[in-house]
């Protein structure tokens, strides 16, 4: 092997990963779990890093066995490796203490039959801020299972209050049964890889439960463990949370109003703490049965005022309170239906892994997935309502390309040898990006077809002088950053693909018009060659050399 010493680990990792893709995976009894590789957090399934190229079903799609069966021909065509599907409390425990796993088992059967994986979404006490998926026996008994109250204190909302121990214990008891069943039927196969605990929790437009019990709890001291967390992590706190704390005097003790402000700011912090503690208790009980990785997702604030989004969920400026209150939740995840780059940046602060369980199924998803995985080492990307997506959607081509590249991607995660491209509206020219022992000078291509895929892709350094480039609408020039000859030039550009065994299949050697005489690899290679393709993503293998 001619690679220098510092590059040998990644070269070996890529070769080993490609070899593994050609053979059955080695037996590994460890359940799916998270582990670090360099700066990245990876999901490990069957002993190997696994990135969820996923789709989330519509809310009611997992509520009927025959409908579940009807989904898979379509889902298979979309190139998924994972499906996100709800499990609702009302259908799992239709009568108190009686559990029905028919739908869960149907999901498992279909997912296994189509050689995919499953992430389950627990719709328990809350879904999208309300309690519509709780069982009837819970919702009817408002004395036993208390609701949050609205601003008049006479308006009982359709939200189970997070302040009720009875509510929490009932939810946790059902979740325990779910996790126990998954262990019984899936501990060998590892079909289920992650669990979402509740869905987009919080209360609005009120920033907290305004019942007498809520008033009393709000007037009580902020829990010492939260105050200790704030003091210990003061330098790493989100700027907005730090602003609220310091604006109120950076007190070390006090009520919620005294520590975080008497207005909605203090009320939001209060709600976040209680929702997070409730959800953590449910997650802890479930993990005691079967400790799969668990995540909580956020209805984003959208830059709006408190009350325009649910108060209580893991929005970015409340992550620190969630970390203090919910140590059994492994990932805090954004549901993204608007601006993308800044949201994912906000959700990767302080080592929080990136998992996007819901994203808009717009054509931009085809490029956003590259940015999530290549720039932020995402462990999963999942458009919502996946069964409604057409098989001609550009994300399908991105998923199939990422499947080919996955051994190289997972080997490069956390090493600094992979970068991503995504041209979001308003983006200007990119600054040079470090990639391994080089800088990549990326340019967005002009004069693309009127109807073209979103501009985005990946560049991965796979050897001392070798790179993979995949995607659409950009070109790249490399400059070495290590001592030696000053000039970096292109030696060879190949168009090709990886077969099912992970072997590179050469299609064309690109030179002349298709590369500017080896000046710059770019996709599309040549706008005049429409037979080669001017509106489809491609994979290139690039070899460089250096000279004085």
Write the layout of secondary structure elements.
Layout: H1 8-21, E1 33-37, E2 40-45, E3 48-50, E4 52-56, H2 65-77, E5 82-88, H3 89-92, H4 102-113, E6 117-127, H5 136-139, E7 147-149, E8 156-160, H6 165-186, E9 192-199, H7 212-218, H8 224-232, H9 239-247, H10 256-260, H11 264-289, E10 294-299, H12 319-325, E11 331-336, H13 341-346, E12 355-359, H14 365-376, E13 380-383, H15 394-412, E14 418-422, E15 433-435, E16 438-444, E17 456-463, E18 466-472, E19 474-480, E20 487-498, E21 504-509, E22 522-523, E23 538-547
Parallel strand pairs: 4-5, 4-13, 5-6, 6-9, 9-10, 10-11, 11-12, 12-13
Antiparallel strand pairs: 1-2, 2-3, 7-8, 14-17, 15-16, 16-19, 17-18, 18-23, 19-22, 20-21, 20-23
General shape? globular
> How many individual β-strands?
23
Strand content: 25-35%
N- to C-terminal distance: 25 Å
CATH architecture classification name of the domain at 1-36 and 388-548: Sandwich
Uncertain runs are 1-27
Q: Which structural class is indicated by helix and strand composition? A: alpha/beta
Strand order, main sheet: write it out.
4-5-6-9-10-11-12-13
């Amino acid at each position: 092997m001619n690679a220098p010493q510092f590059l040998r680990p990644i070269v070996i990792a890529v070769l080993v990963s490609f070899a593994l893709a050609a053979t059955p995976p080695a037996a590994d009894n460890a359940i799916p779990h998270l582990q670090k590789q360099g700066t990245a957090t990876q999901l490990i399934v069957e002993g190997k890093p696994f990135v969820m190229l996923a789709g989330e079903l519509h809310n009611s799609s997992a509520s009927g066995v025959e409908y579940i069966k009807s989904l898979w021909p379509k889902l298979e065509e979309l190139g998924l490796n994972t499906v996100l599907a709800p499990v609702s409390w009302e259908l799992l425990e239709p009568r108190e203490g009686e559990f029905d796993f028919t739908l869960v088992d149907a999901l498992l059967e279909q997912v296994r039959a189509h050689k995919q994986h499953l992430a389950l979404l627990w719709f328990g006490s809350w879904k999208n801020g309300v309690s519509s998926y709780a069982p009837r026996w819970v919702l009817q008994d408002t004395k036993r299972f208390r609701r949050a109250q609205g601003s008049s204190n006479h308006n009982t909302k359709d939200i189970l209050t997070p302040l009720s121990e009875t509510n929490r214990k009932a939810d946790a008891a059902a979740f325990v049964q779910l996790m126990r069943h998954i262990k019984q039927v899936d501990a060998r196969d590892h079909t289920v890889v992650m669990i979402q605990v509740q869905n987009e929790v919080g209360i609005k437009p009120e920033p907290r439960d305004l019942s007498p019990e809520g008033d009393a709890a709000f007037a009580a001291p902020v829990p010492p463990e939260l105050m200790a967390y704030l003091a210990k992590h003061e330098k790493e706190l989100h700027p907005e949370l730090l602003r609220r704390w310091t604006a109120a005097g950076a007190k070390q003790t006090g009520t919620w109003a005294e520590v975080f402000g008497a207005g909605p700011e203090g009320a939001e912090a209060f709600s976040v703490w209680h929702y997070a503690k409730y959800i953590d208790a449910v997650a802890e009980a479930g993990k005691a049965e079967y400790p799969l990785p668990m995540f909580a997702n956020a209805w984003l604030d959208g830059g709006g005022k408190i009350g325009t989004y649910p108060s209580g969920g893991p929005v970015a400026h409340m992550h620190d309170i969630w970390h203090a209150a919910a140590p059994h939740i492994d990932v805090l995840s954004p549901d993204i239906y608007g601006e993308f780059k800044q949201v994912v940046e906000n959700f990767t602060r302080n080592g929080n892994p990136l998992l996007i369980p819901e994203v808009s199924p717009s054509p931009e998803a085809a490029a956003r997935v590259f940015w999530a995985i290549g720039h932020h080492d995402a462990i999963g990307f999942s458009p919502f309502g996946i069964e409604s997506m057409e098989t001609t959607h550009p994300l399908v081509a991105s998923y199939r390309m990422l499947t080919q590249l996955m051994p190289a991607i997972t080997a490069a995660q956390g090493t600094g040898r992979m970068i991503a491209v995504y041209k979001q509206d308003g983006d200007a020219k990119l600054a040079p990006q470090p990639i391994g022992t080089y800088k990549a000078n990326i340019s967005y291509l002009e004069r693309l077809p009127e109807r073209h895929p979103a501009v985005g892709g990946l560049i991965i350094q796979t050897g001392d002088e070798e790179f993979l480039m995949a995607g659409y609408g950009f070109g790249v020039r490399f400059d070495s950053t290590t001592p030696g000859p000053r000039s970096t030039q292109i030696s060879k550009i190949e168009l090709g693909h990886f077969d099912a065994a992970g072997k590179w299949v050469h299609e064309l050697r690109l030179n002349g018009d298709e590369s500017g005489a080896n000046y710059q690899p770019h996709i599309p290679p040549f706008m005049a060659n429409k037979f080669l393709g001017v509106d489809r993503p491609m994979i290139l293998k690039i070899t460089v050399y250096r000279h004085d």
